[in-house]
Fold these 2 entries.
Entry 1:
Amino acid sequence: MSNRRHQLCLLLCQAVLVAGCQPRTNQGTLVVTQTPPSPPSSPAAGNALDARYPLGSRIIAVPPHQGPDHARILSTGLVAAGAPRLSPDGSQILFCGQTDPQAAWQIYRTDLRGSLPQRLTDMPGGAMDPDWLPGGRFVFVSPVPTPYQPALSKPLPALYAQDLEGGSAQRLSSALGAVSDPTVLQDGRILFVAELNDPEGNHDGLFTVNSDGTEVTAFAALHDAPSRIRRPRELPDGRVIFLAKRLEGPDSVDRLEAVELRRPFSSREPLGSWAALSVLAADPGLDFPVIASCAPQTASELNHATAAIVARDPTTATLEVVFDDPAWNDLEAVQCAERMKPMGRLSTIDPALDFGRVLCLNANLSQQHQSSLPSLLPAASRVRFLALTPDGGEQPLGETAVHPDGSFLVELPADRALTLETLDADGQVIRRLHHGFWVRPGENRACIGCHEPHNSAPGNFRPLAAKAPAVRLGFKTPASAVARHP
Amino acid sequence: MMKRALILVFALAGLGVGSAVALSRFDDTKRRALYMWINDTTRSLGLGVRKRDLRHMQQMTRLQDVSNVSCRDCHGISLETLPWAQPRTRHTSPDALALSPDGARLYVAATDTDEVLEIDTSTRQVARRAEVKGGPAGLAVDPTGTRLFVSCQQQDSVASIDLIPFEETHRAFVGRGPVGIAFAPLPDHPRLVVANAASDDISVLDAVTLEEKARLLSGREPYAVVCTGDGTRAIVACRLADIPSVDIPPSSEVTVVDVPRLRIAQRHTLESAHLSESAAVLPDRPWLLTPLVRVRNLVPITQVARGWVMSSGLALTPVNGAGPVTQLPLDEANAYFADPSGLTVDAQGRRAYVTSAGGDVVTVVDLERLLQWVDQAPPLALTNAINDLELSAHYVVGRIPTGRNPQQLALSPGGETLFVAERLDDSILVVDTRSLEPRDRISLDHDGDRDPVRRGEKVFTTAHRTFQGQFSCRSCHPGGHADGLTYDFDGDGIGDNMLDNRSLRGLAGTWPFKWNGKNPSLKVQCGPRFAKVLMRTEPFSESQLQDLSAFLQSMPPARTVHASRAGQPLTPSQERGRAIFFATRTPEGREIPRERQCSSCHMPPLYTNRMKSSVGTRAATDASDEFDTPHLLGIAASAPYLHDGRAKTLEELWTLYQTNDLHGVSSYMNKQQLNDLVEFLKIL
């Protein structure tokens, strides 16, 4: 008996030793989305993902420094798949996939061993762009947008979060235009792209929001070179890269650009030279800061016509092919690397409440007021709040007086698309917030001023509004009469 | 059944009486302990409580149902048993650094172990150790390199060490809690300038005899001193802000001393800034540099992002008093470097190095770029500079990662080597300033992490647990104390329940915590709710909470009596004040109702009954008129007072904010009686 126990102990020790000595097999592994160069005949692309990941698209895992012969298919059982995101420990991926051409795209999870993917979402309009949140949750976008379809005929894509182990999805965003490409930053916030329609035209901007949907905040690329923006990704060196297609000028191709986290509003610039390659996607790499999927603009660039995964050596500025499967378009790649887990956050939402509070420190403060030039605008005496309805209309919620120091404090319906206008003494609109905002139930939201200077901390003063009770604004008609965003 | 119960009662009563008789010769403490044991035991057996005791408990607690009240809640504490009164593990932590003029030797003050260490900078080994009692906290080497002057924080003195035998030769008393010390090389009369942090004054000493030549009033908690090259000016950076009205921004002081004339030359104020723990004069430029924490305590804490609560920066102050003070940020738009502590500038004035004690980095500032920006910036931009979180990118040229809790710095005479005191790792990091890369690490102690108190201090001082590293526990509780500011937390609404920040010193045994007395333990106080309201991240883990709790309970109350008076009998004024504090009748013989006697709520030995009381201080925005009764140990050092910090001094509690004698009966007191009471409170 004793001998058996001894043997068992020995076996266990060996097992532990073997497990402990095994290298991290996933380190450096590439997870690649491949699309067929000539997609099989299929129904016309119905939505954005159908176009991006045509039938036959798949996700593979390739061990470090190996070629396509060593690839393992991860999207087994799906007719199309794409947008893989690695878990912080590098052992699993989230991605979007489709079980048959008519089915809606949903979010799946699998490990890198090639286990059968597990479906996580069941969103009526489909789901896309997943990423891992701390605390066993993930964020994604739903519904999948449909090109060429009038925007108002379908709900706009919004951010959702859901537990990995099931449960219903909670909507995080309630305003701005269509949102896309959420990516979780190291500090735990979700960085995402939002479509804006403001005096600068219809363009995209980068915003952040907490993992519970609170504190939606402008992050970068709002007032510099209106662009269509895709795939923001945080690099370990303190930069955020993204693909931008300028809306002005002749340059209409996607360019890889970057902003520094330390000054995101004043550091936007192109990221290196990618020769004559067209960058389709870019992500942080392991041996190189960035690995990108590049398509040759002429067939001679990569010796064939399909896209490949390429890295740019920052010291020599030379391009190096990291992975290339000539039989497929290597559309995007993520690489396993030891990454810090993003910081978690306890939600500040109080689900028992149906309102959130907004404290503005000075409605008259704007970027212009930071300059030495006198402002041409009159001081605001009132602020009007409006709810944006799904049909594109507006419904007034009421007005509140602005205190002499420019501050105001209001309670507003939670989880609604909201906007505001500052009014002069005659009731004329001085300024209007063009892209909307929202508050979550029980959220206490504050801003320095309307059109506040970005990345500015507040001054240290006690706003008069904080000394008076909050003004409750809401729907004059019962709330249920106004359609909520689905 | 009935019979058994009767037997039990009689047995217990007999045991109690027998024991009481047996212990009748014992002191009050033991008799009280036995009495409480009997009382608690009979109650736990469901046998009730004597009517007299019940009345006493109801009267004292103002509760009808006292089933959850134990005798020990009020009587079961003795100071000797509290964690902060117990012996604890000591660590050779580097608290101050000073280099010999030739850079060959580095001196290290280790407050915790009462030592000064000498390190050979070529071998990077500890060469000699000298015992310097009383918590060595600051160092200054004379220009000849033969004497080292040490400020001793716990013994309110300055020691002089002869560096040849490496022995203490002289010692002299200064003000309370001296920390910063600097040598002023006046040609005929070299002086020492000492910042007495606990008594808010500055001592100027004769550097030869250590005779105190002058004691000058400074701002609140003077902490660091630096002298100009000719020794004519000493600049003192203060850690705490003066206490303003609740709606007025606080401001701390940079005090400039005219050393030859022994008087104050200028007082500069740093608006909405405090916690300056070092200072440097820029060579050949009329500027003084101090690190600071820019605080935004008047703004409701609806978020912590974007420096909403506080941020780190530098103050650029004119040495000669001409021109405004400019505050510049050290933080970035999405990353913060909390608790700027040590600062040093190279001999050419090209670079400044600033430690972030909470962020574990040294920030490298290009001073030429910084001054260039200041020269070109319009006045409004200079005023708003500290709030512009993208500005530091203009002049911050490096961030050097360090071990835990980097504080003081020393730069070799040529500027090529930077020594960083990694206080909570008990080590000194050696950095090559050309590459900004670490070159070596000098270890002073080992196994610090085996000590839960040390681990808890690491939790207390780290900013890595706060969203984007914005601040640490220490940012509001420097030295475990309080920053003296009032905050508006949004957990209970915006603008409601303004709260004075309370000291954490001497809090062992004073549960419950918070002004509303809702938190029964430190684990609850510092747990998930704290993470939700303040850190805005994940809560501390269970083990971190345990360590943090051990550290918090290890901190003794602030010392408020000068070391030279320790153990002395009370002065007549303090004696009279003591009598007033414990009075049950007014001098005219009128009875003071029990619940309004000072000692009923502020019951020794902790001077709290750990209950909530209504003392007529409810403000319009307060949710309740009842507040936790604070302990009074070290109360003289924890101004302002009352739950919202409205009383700047102890006197104001009764001269301005007394309502209908609800906060003790004071209407009979004349000025002298009130002074006597305050004098007594100041020694608790």
Note: Chain B has 15 helices and 33 strands.
Entry 2:
Amino acid sequence: MLEIPGSHAPSLSFPERVAHQVLKRPVVGIGFLVLTLLFGLTLLPFLRNESGVQVFADPRSPHKAVLDEVNAQFVNDDLLFIAYEAEDIFSTESLELVRSLGDTMLDLRAPRAVGGVGEVLVEDVTSLATVKELVGADLVFRTVDLVADPVPQDEESLAWIRERAKNNPLMAEQMFTSDGRSGLIIVRVAEDLDDDVLAYTVREIRRVLRETESREEMRLFLAGEIAVNADIARYQQEDLARFIPLVYLIITVMLFVFLRKIRGVLLALLCISVAMISAMGLLVAVGGSMTNTTVMLPPIILTLSVAMLVHYFSEYGKNDAAGRAPVAQRTLAELIPPVFIAAFTTSIAMACLAISKTPAVRMFGHSASLALLLCFLICVFFCGVTWRRWQAPALVSNRGLALSTGFDAFLTSFARLIIRRRLPVFVGSLVLLAAVGAGAARLVVDQSAMAMFSESAPIKKATGFVDDHFGGVTTLVASIRAPKEGYFLEPEALDGLEEVKDFFLNDLGASFVTAPQDYVKLMHREFLDGDPSMYRIPESKEQTEQLLLLNGDDTVAEYINESRSWVRIVARTTEDSTVGLASAHERLEQFLAEQYPSAKGYVTHSTGQSRLSATMLKELLRTQIGSLGLSFVVILALMILLFRSLRAALFSVLPNCFPILIALGVMGWAGIRLDAATVMISTIALGIAIDDTVHFLSHLRRGLASHGDLERGIIDTMRVKGPAIIGTSLIISAGFAVMLVSNFMPTKDFAIMICVAMMAALVGDLVLLPSMALVTKSRLGVRLPEASRSTVAETDAGSCAGPSIEGEAA
Amino acid sequence: MKGKTLWLMGCVSFVSAAAVVVPFASMASSGELDPKELMRQSDERHRLTSEYTEGMMILQAEGSEPQQRTLVSYTLQDEERGDRMLLRFLSPSGIRNTAFLTIEHGRGRANDQWLYLPAFRRTRRLGEAELGDRFVGSDIFFEDLKRRYVDDYSYTLLRTEACGEHRCHVIESIPSDPKVKEESPYSKTQIWLRADNLFPIRTRSFDSRDRPLKEMRIEELTQVHGDVWRADRMVVVDLQRRHRTVMTVRERTVNQPISDDLFSPHSLGNE
């Protein structure tokens, strides 16, 4: 049974009193752990899955407001594109099949399973089989379905359909290829569907397409931003669901290598699991859901709880080996302050994400910040409970890496090497930082949806097919409002819209553009008996107005409003990089502002889902950079407060920056883009780096306070803290390295960057930090009382029973 | 027996549905309300020989300013020669004198529709338009302008309920004639037929997927001649497009002679 000394001894410091209470009252610890676990288990079933991008959109963004306004006036541009390939797309069979596909999609309803109540999923399907055709000849003018119902069987009717479609500029090339072998179905999904319902819609349409392909001789390709977003979310979450168990397995093996005690490993895993479950419960409690950002919460909690436990177990074993009784209390007392500081600072780093305008990032910031503090408490109580029951040898074997004498000797030699070669090591670290960090200058801040998928991914193949045959799936929308009603009936105004169309085609490289004047020209031609030379803008305002009055097809209302004062022009492009799209939107915005000056009462916008996507990443990066900067400032302030020493706090800056700069540099050199997934790395890297830096600095300062010898302090710290720091880094890196086999690029990039950040944090803490201290001959803000200097020199390294460090937070 | 329901056409042309002759009370007392008979009586009761109206068509999309058009209509209802209707827009100036002529030829035969665009000085035959197409961008389909024969539909009396200060029979009509079934944009229509005058004061139509498509409400009703009633204000809402059309009548003349010559494609250009 554990021997616990009296807690009222006057010599006990605050951490010792806390440790004493934790060990003395295991029931409190067990109660806390059970309640925490129950809390997590109770809330976990309520964890919602938000699989798309809506949670990344700033609901107060002006771009979102513009798009909502334009969509409300016209129609949404939430489109899916289904390209199909057949022997002859104008055959009866093909037309029937396309019509039947459209009908099937229009019949799709949202089930309760995805939170639906049977609402319509697809609002509209446009295809050769559904499109309207204007026919003007022999004094007759009418709007008819291009393909009658039932689909004609005779050659003459089919030839008429082919001919009419080829002569209609709104169909030719946009809806079918000139060889008549490929066609395009455009599916407009219903408005206001949430991400889960959208993902369900994509799944259902895929199922319908698969079934069709299996029984018909037709190849079908589903593309479009909605499908891409659904796939990104699905791949990412599937990957993490698939890999987290593997990460667990690898961590288990690595923990065994480190501790060499099955009991120790199992207890560590139990503690990690309680932390993970509680953290997810906390996510629910703060109103969060599982998104592409909060999906990072489990790996972060896994990482940091492993790090905390490795430190606890490692030091527990070391203190026991050194015979520093009472071992459990001493170890807890030694570790509670640095672990708390580490958890608190990381928590602050996460809390800084709450400044984001992006709901998903804010949600992540709140939950991660609280989860880390909870994680700290879980680890403290867990150690308190288990250490009261089991002594160190039952949990950590001296054959494990944590207590290995060979490893200890290696670390001693390593520390001595750094001491001997302090300048070259320090300069070398800086050179490494400069050389690798320089890659950060090459960093491309961009996100290309297609770059996330492997070549074999169905969405990539489908998008490639649509890009090659139908000019892309990304839409750019120009919205132009004139100050007076009927303005866009004027021939000059329609000529102006032709210039906008030309700008889309020639300057922005759009593949196809659909504008209201296209319909007017077509109506003009058909009203004048289909004379091809009449495919032009009418001569007078009255002619246009009267032609539009005849419109029996709702499609025109998607491009011009009822008072003819507001138009919408839609372009399709193959561009999918956020940088390219942002640039295109900015240029379009500028062009529109020049053509239609606001001073004259025009209101113009470049808008569309593509603008939201481009803005979203920009906002995400701005937030990340802002919150990272803020966390550095806040953490520095905390370090100053906690160490009560500016010098000690400043010493933490470079080792903390080191993994971030190295990670960004590696990304730059390796050509990995800074995107929505990789931008999270800096926060995680900072969180990990701070932990180890705090542990290293705290121990080193304690040593200095005890004996005043920097070199000895470094050797001692390297021996005491080195195994835990190295163990943490190796365990986490090995765990996440398993994700490198993923086919989904963001998962792969995430894994690479976690490993790089871990290794860099290791170098920063074990190489850069001690060599910097040695080169600068700094005492890290520790002021040693003259009287104690000679007596404490004999004290064992790392003792907390000696004179306290001036100002150390306790 | 030939009959028709004109619950929407009547409103567009500012005519309304036909008369009911059979005393309603006697049917009610027998306890056997036959919805088809009710519709037939409604169809016959509200017929007029001729009608001239001046009124307004207001189009309004959700969140947009309303667009007003003024127009006049001339209607001749003739069981032998078929009904004829001429619509002419008076404003806005851009569409002034645009004219639309419909000549019906009886059950099972296609209508003739003609259009005159003054800006082109040309008349064009519209051919047989898609019945689901909108008439002049409004919420009224060409289907609603077409004569609807009672025998082309099957009817079910859903219930009798209060509608404002009156009682209404709620009747569901479903196309039964194969051709009508194929061409109609509506899979079914629910009709609120006022019990006292058998005038349809509200309808709710469903699309081919049984989704609510349109709703029509009569907001002002006038007894114009004998038992004949007409709507002076009607609102049609496209529930899917979130768009509405309001039809109002400013002036009406009934059963006064109207020249046949007016209903000729050649005279459409005469202003």
Note: Chain A touches chain B at residues 72-73, 106-107, 120, 132, 135-136, 139-145, 149, 485-486, 489, 527-528, 538, 540-543, 545-554, 557, 561-563 (CB under 8 Å).
